[in-house]
């Protein structure tokens, strides 16, 4: 049976614990961490890593492993849609990984998927040519839509970071 990515719903503030437990049990998982800079009470900057998706960890398993995952400490259930666990596209997990590696202070927006103009982002870093999801660029904001999850990842980008070129394949741009 082929492995697929699923979203697991965890108890509040248990994302890192569940991820560590699954890793210890040699179950491939991914808990995206957002590098955030916060100002402390004495106005010093403090870096922290917080789960990007509150109460979610992604697991790469076969359908037979679902019952085993549900029994793990900190796991509430899988995310379901129409009575079946939601399968997350592998490309979406890869896109999340690359986005999290590239940007900090990421925030999520709920969204509906809308396919509009196709664009390619030409740049040395980051290399978004491989993204298969919807992307929005609005001078200083980069957004990537995750269709199977109904979320959009958003982050601030440097103005000089991107140059857009219309193409008939690859990444799609949404109007802002």
Descriptive notes:
Residues 113-127 and 164-176 have low confidence and may be disordered. Helix content is 16%, strand content 41%. The chain has three helices and 16 strands. It is α+β, with helices and mostly antiparallel strands and 176 residues long. The strands form four sheets. The protein has a seven-stranded mixed β-sheet, with helices on one face. Strands 1, 2, 5, 6 and 9 form a five-stranded antiparallel β-sheet that branches. A two-stranded antiparallel ribbon has the order 3-4.
Summarize this entry quickly.
The chain has 176 residues and is an alpha+beta fold. The chain has helices at 15-24, 66-70, 90-102, and strands at 4-10, 29-30, 33-39, 45-51, 56-61, 75-78, 80-81, 84-85, 87-88, 107-110, 118-122, 134-138, 141-146, 151-156, 163-166, 171-173. The chain contains 3 helices and 16 strands.
Name the poorly predicted regions.
Answer: 113-127, 164-176
Helix and strand run: EHEEEEHEEEEHEEEEEEE
CATH class of the largest domain: Alpha Beta
Overall number of strands: 16
For the residues shown, what is the average pLDDT? 78
CATH architect. name of the largest domain: 2-Layer Sandwich
Query: What would CATH call the homologous superfamily of the largest domain?
Result: NusG, N-terminal domain
Major sheet: order of its strands? 10-14-13-12-16-11-15
**Cα distance, first to last residue?**
41 Å
Q: What is Rg? A: 17 Å
Q: What fold name stands as the CATH topology of the largest domain?
A: Alpha-Beta Plaits
Kindly estimate the percentage of residues that lie in beta strands according to DSSP.
Answer: 35-45%
Assign a percent range to the helix content.
10-25%
Main beta sheet: strand number and arrangement? 7 strands, mixed
Q: Give the count of helical stretches.
A: 3
Structural class: alpha+beta
> Could you say which overall geometry the principal axes of the C-alpha atoms support?
globular
């Amino acid at each position: 049976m082929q492995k697929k990515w699923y979203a697991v719903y965890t108890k509040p503030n248990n994302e890192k614990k569940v991820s560590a437990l699954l890793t210890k049990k040699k179950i491939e998982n991914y808990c995206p961490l957002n590098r955030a800079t916060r100002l402390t009470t004495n106005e010093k900057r403090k870096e922290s890593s917080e789960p990007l998706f509150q109460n979610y960890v992604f697991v790469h398993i076969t359908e037979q492993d679902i019952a085993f995952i549900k029994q793990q400490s900190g796991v509430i259930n899988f995310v379901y849609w129409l009575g079946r666990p939601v399968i997350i596209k592998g490309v979406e997990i890869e896109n999340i990984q690359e986005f999290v590696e590239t940007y900090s202070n990421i925030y999520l927006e709920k969204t509906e998927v809308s396919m509009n103009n196709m664009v390619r982002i030409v740049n040395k870093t980051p290399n978004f040519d491989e993204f298969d999801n919807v992307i929005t660029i609005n001078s200083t904001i980069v957004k990537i839509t995750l269709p199977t999850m109904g979320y959009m990842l958003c982050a601030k980008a440097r103005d000089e970071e991107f140059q857009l070129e219309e193409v008939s394949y690859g990444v799609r741009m949404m109007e802002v």
